[in-house]
Amino acid sequence: MARASNLTMCSFCGKSHSEVKKLIAGPGVYICNECIDVCSTILRKELAGGDSGSSLDDASQTLEEGIPTPAELCEYLNDYVIGQDDAKKVLSVAVYNHYQRLRQHEIADDEFSEVEIEKSNVLLLGPTGSGKTLLAKTLARLLDVPFCIVDATTLTEAGYVGEDVE
Q1: Topology of domain 55-153, per CATH?
Q2: Apex 150 CA angle, 99 and 97, nearest 5
Q3: What global pTM score does this model have?
Q4: 70-80 and 132-143 helices, crossing angle to 10°
Q5: Which of 20, 33, 45, 55 is the most buried (most CB within 10 A)?
Q6: Measured between alpha carbons, how far is residue 104 from residues 12, 45, 97, 99 in Å?
Q7: What stretch of H or E contains 87?
Q8: Greatest alpha-carbon span in the chain
């Protein structure tokens, strides 16, 4: 028997519309009532405390384990990235200060509670192949944080041609 090319199936379990009670459509995906039940059960367990692997718990655990010093961060970067010494130092201090800011909110009774570390950002500029992505990727691996690369030219209508965005 030939299979219809427009047969709708659950994107998660692969069951067809005729095998389930309800199939809900999303933009390019479908989910059946059975998969919704499974997802609901998982979420209920996580919210009830059955799973402690949330990202907030992981972040606070990282803070409790200790923040690598700027010298340790720079030394780690030296093992993977050749050159770019100024960038490595700046990134190491920026990452250290970021984690200190996060920790500062947890330790409010400390003698240095009046000291406030300002939020800062780092913009890496340079020609192709100079190590910008490698620096960020290596730091993300060390700190066990997610890393995402996005092509910014797809975000504008004009792309990378220098025209105005309209």
Answers
A1: Rossmann fold (3.40.50)
A2: 10
A3: 0.54
A4: 120
A5: 20
A6: 42, 31, 10, 8
A7: helix 85-106
A8: 77
For the chain, list residues with pLDDT below 50.
Answer: 1-5, 51-56
* CA separation for the pair 77, 134 (Å, rounded): 9
H helices within 23-84, ranges in order? Answer: 33-47, 55-65, 70-80
The CA distance from 19 to 149, in Å, is: 39
- How many CB atoms lie under 10 A from the CB of residue 156? 13
List the structure tokens of 129: 């192949």
Q: Is the CB of residue 126 less than 8 Å from the CB of residue 115?
A: no
Q: What whole-number distance in Å separates Cα of residue 30 and Cα of residue 43?
A: 19
Where in the chain do CATH 3.40.50.300 domains reside?
Answer: 55-153
Query: Which residues on neighbouring strands pair with residue 32, listed in sequence order?
Result: 23
